[in-house]
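Researcher: Go.
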Amino acid sequence: MTEFNLLEPVVHVLRRARRVAVVTGAGMSAESGVPTFRGAGGLWRSFRPEDLATPQAFNRDPVTVWAWYRWRQQLIARAIPNAGHIALARLEVTRPGWLVLTQNVDGLHQRAGSHAVVELHGSIWRSRCVSCHTSRAIAPEHVDGEAAPLPRCACGEMLRPAVVWFGEALDPAVVAQAWSAVEEADALLVVGTSAVVFPVAALPDVARAKRVPVVEINVDDTPLTARADFVVRATAATALSALESAL
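Model: Structure:
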């Protein structure tokens, strides 16, 4: 493991890579002002995320859960993709073979222009029926207010946010896509995530088993740091912008 401030060793690895998988987490969107779960004031200070982002919470009190998600949608709708999102979108164009595997549900990668994005935990901009599982898009410019009626499917049943809640498993097809992408990659970037939640936490080990170089980009040490081949101590926006310019 090499820790450094300059990016030359990573640039050397990425210049030789035909396929690059990029795992992104909450730190990716931090510089866009996206809150992880709740703000500093208001109703949501009295709730823990674990009290709201669960199937049990939704079954018990869908009104409150939807109010929380609409509040989050309003905040995220005002956020702007940062330089890190934009750098990844540009790299997708200039260096085909780059794929983003994001734990974020905010849609900022797509708003920045990325198309090769796998949403591991779903999207706050989609809802799905609790009965027939029909999916519906939610336009950021048409977010309902917190007190709006519960959304309903055409079949008459309630819609829920199409995100992976605490206690729920990731979509097996999505997990398989992520596994395959990492196994076939020539390099793996892990950006702005502590990489402790499984199965995503296992992706760096999948890479290492295939002798794929693992690059961590984070402002802090994480459980991954000791296992990474390269460590870049910088924000996502700073590091990815520098890499995009160098490549």
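Model: The domain at 2-34+80-121+170-246 is CATH 3.40.50.1220 (Rossmann fold).
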